[in-house]
């Protein structure tokens, strides 16, 4: 109610108080009205940067004369820049042939539009990357071991006519006509000659029909007078392993889905009519579909996944108004609140990330559009019939996330706050248990519910005339039932505790209950001694409760916990913790425990910085809320395991058949302070058959580097550590590479893998050793593939290596974990290089074993433990530390 009253009397944002009649009139109008417009051209303004190297917004009060970099509508058609036959395509033009229109908000790719240049969109090309990474000597990638299980997958078969193929033609029209719209109209006059379904972008033509001649000449008369000649030249057939093949298939699918009346937001289609309002949090959930068509092992399959988009009902302008309530700091507060936000502009259904705020410009500022100075107010009124209400608001700056390290003008987009709807969740929302619970009721669908939704999606496509016609025109038919696939369940793996006592996990791959009667594998001989606990004076009783439970839990696991040196502080300010941590180092503590009242990020980061960077001492942060939890004994058990790990010891192990094996995991996390920076973390096991030690290292890198240029130095450090411990380099290396996007797979395969193999050979030559046997495997957590065991989840250990895998890869899916809610997500593994002499069965089983060794959880994880450790470490450094930790911690799990 207070918010509603505030809206009724609030004023528009302005640098100066606006008490005019116009100002009062604007204040009475709603600030968060959403406008629905067609995205049929260039939208908000892309502006060139200043002459300065950092490309920050200009501080001048006027922007007259600021001009746009020309840009044409992007094509949704396959790139033809690498065609072996036919001339390279010319650059695209706008529908009018003009090249000086505002450039931002160009037509989103994949909308089904038939205008734009044939070069396509780089992000669209990445999405349909086909990279042959399957080693030539791999005869079969299918395993045989394990208990068979029949599964369904979230795929539908696409049936085609016999000898079905996509044909590529190049089209020239004489005289040359710049307007793509006119080109489309001219070719459509000869549609009877073409197949019922075809794609044409003004230069390139794709269809399933083969014309009688390699060169077909058509003639006609222009409506404006004069004759024209169309020359259609045969270029070739598109192979099923080319990216263009996938692009054409997915464009066909997008056309067929038009009949479902969905809205394109970003790359995916959502159903606003089925939105789920969550009024108390000013947000909506839009259900939608994430789809792709691809050639799989034997058939062309449509993958369909249910997805949801969080749509906030507030705009950036609402955030601006709230920030203006603090006049002395309103600019600073607004900037901090919006930087990094992803916003949606309703007039073109595109999303942008806010990189900066330009307080020197307003909607009244002008730019050059088609040779004229036009204000943003005038532009949006003319282009979209949108009236900008507050002419005093600042402008938002967005940079192309793929090119933000450059300063090209075409990479910068200007946005109006009141036209930008906020998407996603804030940190406060994520920490709101009630909100996340309400959302999970809709987003975490159980397998039976997901199957039902997928079936409804299929039926809608089959029942919609427009959808059926598109597929029929292309001689395609969608199967009604989900694809069935045969999987295998890997045998449960034995967990090894102290004195080689072994146990089997339960059906959910969990062995927590075995801590009651098993001791941890290794613990310090003198227990946890010489350690410090820092606690606010008012929380002294909480500390005593925690310590008594810790001692009880740890003693049953073979860890003796001695009394810590307790340092009381008068308050819970960050500075108080920092002061005590700095002063207690004369005690030479092995570990510092800090009891804190809540999850304050600044305090947590300060504690971790002192421990990891300044002192090189492991730290454990526990909130007082944890102590009051009814499951305190269970929590104390987990904390005791963490404390043991942070001192460099191991709670459990698994049975490993290979000796001389070093397992590596690598991941990258962006810096939360500077999005242009990132930190790569590498974690390595030091032959788990001989001992249970690990090694970790971190390197700073650019967030825009596709390849990890610092990877080899990190790997070399791990090799030297292995050599120090075992007096020899490892015989075998199992490298799990996480943090790889589909678009970077080609470069990763061609450069990173080859570079590592070459440098490994040189390293081993210097040691007078033969090259190691190595498997280099990419790990993808973002796969949209789902498997169903009837109407439930597959059990842990389920592996799938056929039907829905890809023929150009040596890949497999593994369900290694159990989920308590929703549908389990399998992890996709792609073997880019292997001379390790392991069969598919052995490699799959070894990967599953590695998912049992993450010591923050007494159960299996979604990825091998070294990957999860690397992710945990990279996130800690990127979010809290922002610099490299001390090398003294490299052999400890200080990041757990």
UniProtKB/TrEMBL annotation:
PANTHER family: EUKARYOTIC TRANSLATION INITIATION FACTOR 2C. PROSITE patterns: PAZ (PS50821), PIWI (PS50822). Belongs to the argonaute family. Piwi subfamily. This is Piwi. Residues 315-424 form the PAZ domain. Pfam families: PAZ (PF02170), Piwi (PF02171), Piwi_N (PF23278). Residues 52-67 have a biased composition (Low complexity). GO terms for molecular function: chromatin DNA binding; hydrolase activity; piRNA binding; RNA endonuclease activity. InterPro entries: PAZ_dom, PAZ_dom_sf, Piwi, RNaseH-like_sf, RNaseH_sf. It is found in: Cytoplasm. It comes from the Eukaryota. CDD domains: PAZ_piwi_like, Piwi_piwi-like_Euk. GO terms for biological process: female germ-line stem cell asymmetric division; germ-line stem cell population maintenance; germarium-derived oocyte fate determination; male germ-line stem cell asymmetric division; piRNA-mediated gene silencing by mRNA destabilization; pole cell formation; primary piRNA processing; transposable element silencing by piRNA-mediated heterochromatin formation. Residues 1-129 are annotated as: Disordered. Residues 16-43 have a biased composition (Basic and acidic residues). Its main location: cytoplasm. GO terms for cellular component: chromocenter; cytosol; euchromatin; germ cell nucleus; heterochromatin; nucleoplasm; P granule; protein-containing complex. Keywords: Cytoplasm, Developmental protein, Hydrolase, Methylation, RNA-binding, RNA-mediated gene silencing. Residues 591-882 form the Piwi domain.
């Amino acid at each position: 109610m207070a918010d509603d009253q505030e809206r009724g009397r609030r004023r528009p944002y302005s640098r100066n108080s606006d008490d005019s009649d116009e100002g009062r009139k604007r204040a009475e109008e709603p600030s968060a009205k959403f406008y629905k417009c067609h995205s049929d051209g260039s939208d908000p303004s892309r502006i060139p940067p200043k002459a300065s190297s950092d490309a920050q917004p200009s501080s001048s009060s006027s922007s007259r004369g600021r001009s746009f970099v020309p840009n044409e509508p992007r094509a949704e058609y396959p790139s033809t820049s690498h065609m072996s036959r036919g001339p390279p395509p010319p650059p695209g033009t706008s529908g009018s042939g003009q090249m000086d229109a505002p450039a931002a908000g160009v037509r989103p790719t994949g909308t089904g539009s038939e205008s734009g240049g044939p070069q396509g969109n780089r992000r669209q090309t990445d999405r349909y990357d086909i990279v042959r990474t399957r080693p030539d000597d791999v005869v079969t990638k299918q395993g045989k071991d394990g208990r068979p299980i029949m599964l369904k997958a979230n795929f539908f078969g696409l049936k085609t006519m016999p000898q079905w193929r996509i044909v590529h033609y190049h089209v020239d029209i004489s005289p040359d006509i710049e307007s793509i719209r006119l080109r489309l109209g001219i070719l459509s006059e000869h549609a009877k000659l073409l197949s019922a379904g075809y794609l044409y972008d003004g230069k390139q033509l794709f269809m399933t029909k083969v014309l009688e001649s390699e060169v077909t000449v058509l003639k006609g008369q222009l409506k404006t007078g004069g004759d024209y000649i169309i020359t259609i030249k045969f270029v070739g057939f598109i192979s099923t392993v080319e990216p263009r093949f996938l692009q054409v298939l997915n464009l066909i699918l997008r056309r067929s889905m038009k009949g479902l009346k969905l809205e394109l937001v970003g790359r995916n289609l959502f159903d606003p009519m089925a939105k789920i309002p969550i009024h108390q949090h000013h947000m909506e959930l839009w259900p939608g579909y994430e789809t792709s068509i691809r050639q799989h092992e034997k058939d062309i399959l449509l993958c369909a996944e249910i997805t949801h988009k969080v749509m906030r009902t507030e705009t950036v302008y609402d955030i601006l108004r709230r920030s203006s309530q603090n006049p002395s700091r309103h600019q600073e507060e607004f900037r901090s609140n919006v930087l990094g936000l992803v916003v949606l502009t309703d007039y073109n259904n595109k999303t942008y990330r806010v990189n900066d705020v330009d307080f020197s410009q307003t909607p009244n500022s002008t730019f050059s559009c088609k040779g004229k100075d036009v204000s943003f107010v005038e532009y949006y009124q003319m282009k979209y019939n949108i009236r900008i209400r507050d002419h005093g608001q600042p402008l938002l700056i967005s940079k192309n996330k793929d090119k933000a390290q450059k300063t090209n003008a075409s990479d910068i987009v200007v946005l109006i706050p009141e036209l930008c709807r906020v998407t996603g969740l804030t940190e406060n929302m994520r920490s709101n248990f009630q909100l996340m619970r309400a959302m999970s009721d809709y987003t975490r669908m159980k397998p039976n519910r997901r199957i039902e939704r997928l079936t409804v999606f299929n039926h809608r496509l089959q029942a919609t005339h427009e959808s059926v016609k598109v597929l029929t025109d292309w001689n395609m038919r969608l199967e009604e039932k989900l694809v069935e696939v045969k999987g295998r369940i890997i045998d449960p793996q034995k967990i090894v505790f102290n004195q080689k006592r072994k146990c089997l996990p339960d059906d959910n791959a969990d062995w927590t209950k075995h801590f009651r009667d098993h001791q941890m594998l290794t613990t310090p001989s003198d227990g946890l001694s010489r350690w410090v606990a820092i606690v606010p004076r008012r929380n002294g009783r909480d500390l005593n409760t925690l310590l008594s439970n810790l001692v009880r839990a740890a003693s049953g696991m073979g860890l003796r916990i001695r009394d810590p040196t307790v340092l009381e502080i008068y308050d819970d300010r960050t500075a108080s913790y920092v002061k005590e941590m700095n002063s207690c180092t004369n005690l030479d503590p092995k570990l510092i425990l800090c009891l804190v009242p809540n999850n304050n990020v600044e305090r947590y980061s300060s504690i971790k910085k002192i421990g990891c960077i300044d002192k090189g001492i492991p730290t454990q942060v526990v909130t007082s809320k944890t102590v009051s939890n009814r499951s305190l004994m269970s929590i104390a058990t987990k904390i005791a395991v963490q404390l043991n790990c942070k001192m460099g010891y191991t709670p459990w192990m698994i049975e490993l058949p290979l000796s001389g094996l070093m397992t590596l995991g690598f991941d990258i996390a962006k810096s939360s302070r500077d999005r242009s920076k990132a930190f790569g973390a590498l974690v390595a096991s030091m032959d788990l058959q001989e001992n249970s030690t690990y090694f970790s290292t971190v390197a700073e890198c650019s967030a825009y580097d596709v390849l990890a240029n610092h990877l080899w130095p990190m790997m070399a450090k791990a090799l030297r550590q292995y050599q120090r411990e075992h007096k020899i380099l490892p015989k075998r290396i199992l490298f799990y590479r996480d943090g790889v996007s589909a678009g970077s797979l080609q470069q990763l395969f061609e450069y990173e893998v080859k570079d590592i193999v070459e440098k490994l050979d040189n390293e081993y030559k210097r040691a007078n050793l033969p090259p190691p046997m190595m498997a280099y495997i990419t790990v993808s957590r973002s796969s949209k593939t789902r498997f169903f065991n009837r109407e439930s989840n597959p059990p842990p250990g389920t592996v799938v290596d056929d039907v829905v895998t890809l023929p150009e890869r040596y890949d497999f899916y593994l369900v290694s974990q159990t989920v308590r809610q929703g549908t389990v997500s399998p992890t996709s593994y792609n073997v880019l290089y292997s001379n390790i002499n392991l069969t598919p069965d052995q490699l799959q089983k070894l990967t599953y074993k590695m998912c049992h060794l993450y010591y923050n959880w007494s159960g299996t994880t979604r990825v091998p433990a070294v990957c999860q450790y690397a992710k945990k470490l990279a996130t800690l450094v990127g979010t809290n530390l922002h610099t490299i930790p001390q090398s003294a911690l490299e052999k400890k799990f200080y990041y757990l």
